Amino acid sequence: MSEVRYQVFISSTYSDLKDERVEVHDAILAMKHFPAGMEMFPASHLAAWNIIERVIIDSDFYLLIIGGRYGSTAEDGVSYTEREYDFAIAQNKPVFAFLHKSPDSIPIGRSEKDKTARDRLSIFREKVERHHHCNYWSNAAELKVKVITSLATEIPNISAIGWVRADGIDNKALMQRLVVLQERYDRLEAERDELKRQLDASPKEPTEQYVHGEEYVELTFSISAPAMTSIDLDKIDPDPTDRIVAATVTLDDLFFNIAKDLVFPRAESLIAYDIAKLLFESHRNSGDYKDPADDIGPYVICPTEETTQDVRIQFIALGLIECTQITHPRTINGVPEVIDAWKLTTAGTNKMIHRFALKIDDSDD
Q1: Which of 10, 61, 57, 64 lies closest to 36 in space, CA to CA?
Q2: Separation between Cα atoms, residue 157 and residue 155, nearest integer Å
Q3: Crossing angle between the packed helical segments 346-356 and 251-258, to the nearest 10 degrees
Q4: What is the pLDDT along the chain (365 residues), one digit of tens a residue?
Q5: How far is 354 from 352, CA to CA, in rounded Å?
Q6: Closest Cα to residue 248, out of 280, 223, 272?
Q7: Are 234 and 207 in contact (CB under 8 A)?
Q8: What SS3 class is residue 293?
Q9: Are the CB atoms for 66 and 12 separated by under 8 Å?
Q10: For residue 331, what are the β-bridge partners?
């Protein structure tokens, strides 16, 4: 078997830590692993945060560097570096944290001048220190040594998928496994076709009886401050401050919020986060909103399984989506990983086109 190599996502502010990022990048390459970070992101039609999410999901490890700046923030006041950290935690990624040893000694040009940003940075550092064994550095060269030492010591003790050369795979065992999977696939496909035939032959219920369009539904999402439960950092337990919040939206708001991304099959786990974000915005615009940061500090918005199931069932009942599965680019023992996904039906596509397609202005005639 060939040597396994891992993808390591490098997360930090950028302009003040360019030299440090170069050193960490070189350290990861020197260990024959693959660094991933904003420098390597391709030009894309996708929103920047969607690209970041995908790269973090595809990475085996998350490496955080904290210096003297909190960094640029999103509308909720949370920096993109902290958002990356929260998302990595939500994805159960093992975390390697490297914090500057003496933040007060960092030159003013590489530090936060704004008090609010300094306070946010301090809270972020405390959160990371509370949940992880951290390494501390004072310059780029020392950081490189710390990274090499930490990765070399910890990676062998952490279960991760990684990558191997194609010629290092046991092809005979793989082919036997593929034959078994192909037989299973053919059997399941035949069962699916039979179920579809039975469904097509059964009486159809009119969709008008279901909640649809501009009618409101109440759904839930969670607001949490993640807490790690092991030094290996590979599991997550809800923090005691987690709370379930209800928000009200219309079915059309929900559908049009995700429809554009369902022209091609999209992973259900990513759709669930899109729904949770919409529910949070609805909750924030309501009269009952109270900033969660006042109670628990920095927080993460997460979907609930119940809401994901309810929305899936409702959109299937309305004939707008169908469930499918997609092959993840990653593999387990040489076998592609298969994950649940949603995609638009013909009716869903027509509804999306009617809403978003550009139309000719009759007034010009």
Answers
A1: 10
A2: 5
A3: 90
A4: 458 899 999 999 998 999 999 999 999 999 999 999 876 665 554 567 888 899 999 999 999 999 999 998 888 889 999 999 999 999 999 999 999 999 889 998 899 888 999 999 999 999 999 999 999 999 999 999 999 999 999 998 888 888 877 666 666 777 787 888 888 888 888 888 887 776 666 555 555 678 788 889 999 988 877 544 333 334 344 444 568 889 999 999 999 999 999 999 999 999 999 999 999 999 888 877 777 766 766 778 888 999 999 999 999 999 899 999 988 766 666 677 888 999 999 889 999 999 999 888 765 55
A5: 5
A6: 280
A7: no
A8: helix
A9: yes
A10: 336
- Residue 87's closest CA among 330, 298, 327, 339? 298
Alpha helices by DSSP H, listed for the chain, are 18-30, 48-58, 80-90, 115-131, 140-154, 171-201, 251-258, 268-284, 293-296, 305-317, 346-356
Tokens of 365: 């005639």
Q: Where do we find the tokens 């920095």?
A: 298
Q: Give the tokens for residue 273.
A: 């986060």
- Where does residue 262 rank: exposed (0-12), middle (13-18), buried (19+ CB within 10 A)? buried
b/e for 326-349, b at 16 or more Cβ within 10 A?
A: beeeeeeebeeeeeebbbbbeebe
